[in-house]
Specification:
Layout (H helix, E strand, L loop, with lengths): L1 E5 L17 H22 L4 E4 L11 H12 L5 E4 L12 H4 L6 E3 L5 E5 L2 E5 L23 E5 L3 E2 L6 E2 L1 H6 L4 E3 L7 E3 L2 E3 L15 E8 L2 E8 L4 E8 L6 H8 L7 E8 L1 E2 L14 E6 L2 E2 L10 H14 L5 H17 L2
Parallel strand pairs: 1-2, 2-3, 3-4, 6-7, 7-10, 8-9, 10-12, 15-16, 16-18, 17-19
Antiparallel strand pairs: 1-13, 5-6, 11-12, 13-14
Length: 346
C-alpha cells in the first residue's frame, strides 16, 4: 500500500506574526493552496492508495467556506485515493465546523473523538481526533489490534508527552503494534521509525525553520519505507548582522540587502555595539527580509571625564557593579536606558 501523510496545513491562518509587510499573509495563503495542489498532483501521478491528514488542516477561527470548497474540489480530483482526516485542536470536529456541516467528497473519511476502525483490503485504519480545542486524555486505551497479520495504521493529532492536546505515552503507543502512526500537531518533522510527524506542510513562521512538505510511504509485506518530499518553495532562515563596524544607516541597509538567497525568507538580528541610532524603514529592505530585530547595544565611552554628569553616573554605576550590588544584566540594561535617553537628546 502506498500513502501520503501530511499535517498542520492551517489553511487560512492569518500569518500575523511573521512580518510587518501587509501583503505577506496573502502570499503565504496562496502558497498554502499551491502546496496542496502539489500534494494532489503527486498523488495523481503516483497512484497513491491512501492520503492521511493528521489534523489542523484548517484554522476554525479563520477558515472560509470558499477555502473548504477549494479543498474538496482537490479531493474530488483523486477519487480512487481514500482520504482519512483526524481533526486537530485548531480544526476540531464541533457542531459548527465544516467537518460536521459540509458535504465532502465521497472518498473522504473524517474521524471524530470516538475511535473508529475502517477495514480496507489488507489494511485496518484506526483514527480519532479532537471534538474541542483541547483534549486532556488520549483514546489509546480503546484501541486493540485484532488482526495483526494485516497492515494496521493509526491516524491522530497530539503530543508525545504531557500536554492538554491529546497526550500520548510513547511506550504505550509502541506497545499497540501499529505498522505506521500518522501524527500531527508538532510542526517540526520527527520520525521515530514508524511513528511520524511530517511537520507543517509549509512553514508558518521563524519558529519553523528548514524544509517543509509531506511524507510519502509504502508498506509491502509489513515492511515500511518512507521518504520526505519537499513541498514548500520557501525556507525561513534566521541570521545575524554585527553592526559594530558599521557607521551609517546606508551602509547597514546595503549589508542587510545582501541577504537575497533564492527562495529564502530572512529574520535578521542586529547585534554588537551600534555607532548610530538604528530605525530602519522596512520599505528600503529587500522583500525577502521579513523581520529585523534590533538586539544591538549602545557603544559606551566609560572613559568619560568624571567631572561631567555622565562621567559621575558611570563611575557610581561601575562602583555598584564592582561591589556586587547589581548583576551584569542589570548593569547592561541601565547603561542602555541612559544611552538611549542621551541619544534622543542629541
Amino acid at each position: 500500500m502506498k500513502f501520503v501523510h501530511i499535517a498542520d496545513v492551517h489553511l487560512d491562518t492569518p500569518f500575523k506574526t511573521i512580518s510587518d509587510r501587509a501583503d505577506l499573509g496573502v502570499e503565504r495563503r496562496l502558497e498554502q493552496r499551491n502546496a496542496l495542489k502539489k500534494v494532489i498532483d503527486y498523488i495523481k501521478n503516483n497512484n497513491i492508495d491512501y492520503f492521511f491528514i493528521s489534523g489542523d488542516l484548517y484554522d476554525q477561527d479563520y477558515v472560509r467556506e470558499s477555502s473548504i470548497s477549494f479543498l474538496n474540489n482537490l479531493f474530488k480530483e483523486i477519487p480512487e485515493t481514500k482520504i482519512f482526516i483526524a481533526p486537530g485542536n485548531h480544526d476540531p470536529y464541533i457542531k459548527n465546523s465544516f467537518y460536521a456541516n459540509y458535504t465532502w467528497s465521497k472518498n473522504v473519511k473524517i474521524f471524530t473523538n470516538i475511535v473508529e476502525k475502517v477495514e480496507e483490503n489488507g489494511v485496518n485504519i484506526y483514527g480519532y481526533g479532537f471534538n474541542n480545542f483541547k483534549m486532556n486524555e488520549n483514546q489509546l486505551k480503546d484501541i486493540s489490534i485484532d488482526e495483526p497479520n494485516k497492515v494496521n495504521i493509526l491516524i491522530t493529532h497530539g503530543d508525545l508527552g504531557e500536554s492538554s492536546y491529546n497526550p500520548i505515552n510513547l511506550n504505550e503507543l509502541k506497545s499497540k503494534g501499529f505498522d505506521y502512526v500518522a501524527l500531527g500537531h508538532i510542526h517540526k518533522r520527527d520520525n521515530k521509525t514508524n511513528i511520524v510527524y511530517p511537520g507543517s506542510l509549509i512553514s508558518l513562521g521563524f519558529d519553523e525553520l528548514g524544509e517543509h512538505g509531506m511524507i510519502v510511504g509504502n508498506i509491502e509485506d509489513k515492511h515500511l519505507e518512507t521518504n520526505f518530499v519537499k513541498v514548500d518553495d520557501w525556507e525561513f532562515v534566521k541570521t545575524e548582522v554585527d553592526v559594530s563596524d558599521i557607521y551609517s544607516e546606508e551602509e547597514l541597509i546595503e549589508k542587510i540587502n545582501n541577504f537575497n538567497g533564492k527562495n529564502q525568507l530572512f529574520e535578521i538580528a542586529l547585534i554588537g555595539h551600534r555607532n548610530f541610532p538604528i530605525n530602519i524603514n522596512i520599505r528600503l529592505i529587500n522583500k525577502n527580509v521579513l523581520k529585523i530585530k534590533n538586539k544591538t547595544k549602545v557603544k559606551i565611552d566609560l572613559k568619560e571625564n568624571n567631572t561631567t554628569l555622565k562621567g559621575i553616573f558611570f563611575k557610581r554605576l561601575n562602583e555598584r557593579k564592582n561591589q556586587g550590588l547589581i548583576d551584569e544584566e542589570t548593569y547592561e540594561n541601565v547603561l542602555e536606558i541612559v544611552e538611549q535617553a542621551l541619544e534622543k537628546n542629541k
